[in-house]
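#lab-general

N.A. 3:47 PM
ok so I finally got the sequence cleaned up, no stray characters, all 396 residues accounted for. can someone with queue access submit it? mine expired

B.Y. 3:52 PM
send it over

N.A. 3:53 PM
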Amino acid sequence: MMPAFAKPRRKVLVERISKIREWVETCPYNTIERNTPEGSNKRIGIICAGAVYQHVKEACPDADIFKLGVSWPLPAKALNEFANSVDELHVVEEASTYLSDAVKATGVILDSFQMPLPADGEIHPADILRSLGRKLPQHRDNENDIPNRPPALCPGCPHRVIFKELSRLKAIVTGDIGCYTLGALPPLSAMDTTLDMGASVSMAHGFELALEGIEHRPVVGVIGDSTFAHSGLTSLINTVYNKGAGTVCILDNRTTAMTGQQGNPFNGITLQHRESRELDLPSILNAIGVDHVQTVDSFNVKAVRAALKEATSRDELDVIVFQGPCVLLDKSPKDHYVVTDNCNACGICKTIGCPAIACDPETGISSIDPDLCIGCDQCRQYCNFDAIQPREGGQR
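B.Y. 4:20 PM
back already:
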């Protein structure tokens, strides 16, 4: 908005807010539930909003509840009337005092909890009961706790080899936002930073400058094709403009996998799933001034290793476009793989972190789950003893 229009628009804004304050007093999205049993000698009221309402209902089924469907502006008159109708009043909210501060600003007086609500994490019904000084319901502890299963890249993910090789290089890896962020987790453990979309490229440039003459490990930025189109391109232009060095890996899996297989400018599919113009990524990289651009098959271990070795050995800016379709897109039939008697329990196949590969805890011998294996061939390429082979008649 131009400055000349800002002052008169402020007046309009104030008038609109005034009308909203009137409307919110009778707004149907703000509801009051009277749950206190007849004859009760104490009426407890709770003000809450959002998902916390369900926890309040579970913890205090006999409390009166003012559920805010509109949290700003607050219905000051309705809140004060509710406060006057109960003997004890609390605000239940997660991780902050925003709502309670706002409620008190309307003139409502709140009672103090016997114990403070947690200042971080999620609220559990038991937290509400403790805060109110109520007895917790008896429950039986689960003796057979399910072990935690950390998230992992899908079986056959094209990103797996890149992170395995980056881990072998002992590179400083600046990551980005996408399913490939899972490359930070064991056993790959190949990502050192993750901040926001596009930050991998600019942070790699920053690390190169900060560590010049101090650290001799290669610096590699890793970013997906969709994220690069969103906000990585400008960071790379800045690196080129400032004569930066280092290696940038663009993981081109032909989709925006993490958020639901949306299209992007580099696969030529619009958000409406219509075909559009597909931008040529290597040509764009050359056009902005990147002199060293390689295009590599993500599933070819030797090619990935050679490309990374070449790029990180140069004191110049290199960009490697690793191409391999997301396994959720590629439905072409492939051979399943099995572990043969040649396995000597060396465990190298486990280091790629494929969920389809298991290891016998006593013998160390590996096995491959046929229901999870999609035949990507990555584990076979890492096996030094030809112990992993296609299963006969095992094509999907």
